[in-house]
Design brief:
The protein is α/β, with parallel strands linked by helices. The protein has 12 helices and 13 strands. The protein has a 6-stranded mixed β-sheet, with helices on both faces. Strands 1-2-3-5-4 form a 5-stranded mixed barrel. Strands 6-7 form a two-stranded antiparallel ribbon. α1 links the parallel β8 and β9. It is globular and about 75 Å long. The relative contact order is 0.13. The structure holds guanosine-5'-triphosphate (GTP) and zinc ion (ZN). Guanosine-5'-triphosphate (GTP) binds next to α6. The site of zinc ion has 8 residues, from α10.
């Protein structure tokens, strides 16, 4: 008798073992058919139950088309975080002090994969380091004046009147969750969100807050996969609600967010604050590094011209502080990223 293919969702994986959630909510271990097929957490797959007497581990027969794939790539390997996600939440904390370099790279990868990104700043209770970290995120919180956006050629990349990236102040270890917890919760609703961030920022605290049974689920999965202990070496998909509309994905930490898959020519496109100025330069192939008549480099110095409008728009988020059209720190990141990517090409 022919066994029917069934659809399932890859919720985690270790090596060549994957855990597939079946349509009736069961979780079972499956192995990919053939050496090449690499499933990723978030993949929808066709899987096949074993024939009677062949144990209970199934096989993944096909990976259904993905809407996106979020990954990093260094000199040695490509590491996929997840597929088919709605957004990435880059989580930072007042402590440990975060690396803006890693933040910028993760945001570039998200943009290049067509995945919206949010930023969370946790540990609001640590008043002083929190204020410093919040200040370091000013360029990311900056709201762009609508008038300016309309006059910029590539304005479509940025929604008008919104921050470059939404940034949420949170305190996951407190009952109230921090100042922007309700807003963040609202943004998570009905979506699959990959939580990304350095070690110690509070990723597990967030997952456990949203999914009280997460620890138990993880233990069960680890047992099933025989790994004995749980270290976050792989992404895991958790449903937040019974209706399975909202999901959060816990991801492993990383030393360096490799961007080998990004072409230097496209970098401005993946840094929206740079990219939206990158249309009127004197040379059509301007790299925005050294050429004369570069609109991008102009914008780094254009604080005074646009200050009034920028100030208006930023009263809420930046405390009335005027910000340059392109924050010098962001342009410095562009220069460094550009150099790194171009060296590798
Ligand atoms: N002060 C303060 N500490 C917090 C807050 N949220 C989490 N922590 C603490 O920060 C530490 C790290 O939290 P985790 O949730 O384990 O961080 P993680 O990002 O999962 O870290 P890894 O497992 O190493 O990747 C723990 O001691 C938490 O109790 C917060 O809002 N304020
Ligand atoms: Zn230029």
């Amino acid at each position: 008798m022919a066994v029917a293919l069934q659809e399932g969702l890859v919720v985690t994986g270790h090596g060549r073992h994957y855990v597939v959630e079946t349509e009736d909510g069961q979780r079972r271990i499956c192995h990919p058919r053939g050496k090449k097929s690499q499933a990723v957490v978030g993949d929808r797959v066709h899987w096949l139950a074993p024939a009677t007497g062949q144990g209970d581990e199934g096989s993944i027969e096909a990976i259904l088309p993905r809407s996106n794939l979020f990954y990093r790539q260094d000199d040695i390997r490509t590491k996929a975080f997840a597929a088919n996600i709605d957004q990435v939440l880059v989580l930072l904390g007042a402590e440990p002090v975060f690396s803006e370099w890693q933040l910028a790279k993760a945001l570039v990868a998200a943009q290049a994969a067509g995945i919206p990104a949010l930023i969370g700043l946790n540990k609001q209770d640590l008043t002083e380091p929190f204020a410093l970290a919040w200040q370091r995120l000013a360029a990311y919180r900056q709201v762009w004046p609508t008038a300016h956006l309309e006059s910029a050629g590539s304005a479509a990349a940025l929604p008008t009147g919104r921050a470059l990236y939404p940034v949420f102040r949170v305190q996951f270890d407190a009952e109230h969750g921090g100042e922007d917890w309700p807003a963040l919760l609202h943004r998570l609703q009905g979506k699959a969100t990959l939580v990304l961030g350095p070690s110690g920022v509070g990723k597990s605290t967030l997952i456990n807050r949203l999914v009280p049974a997460a620890d138990a689920q993880t233990a069960e999965i680890s047992r099933a996969l025989n790994s004995g202990r749980h270290t976050t070496t792989t992404t895991t998909w958790y449903w937040v609600d019974r209706a399975e509309q909202t999901a959060v994905l816990d991801s492993p930490g990383f030393q360096e967010f490799g961007l080998n898959h990004i072409e230097w020519q496209q970098l401005p496109q993946w840094m929206p604050d740079i990219g939206r100025h990158a249309t009127g330069c004197k040379f059509y192939n301007c790299t925005h590094i050294h050429e004369p008549g570069c609109i991008v480099r102009d914008a780094v110095d254009r604080e005074e011209v646009e200050a009034t409008r920028v100030e208006e728009a930023n009263k809420e988020t930046a405390g009335g502080m005027a910000l340059p059209l392109i924050a010098p720190s962001r342009y410095a990141l562009y220069q460094a990223l550009f150099a790194e990517l171009r060296d590798k090409s």
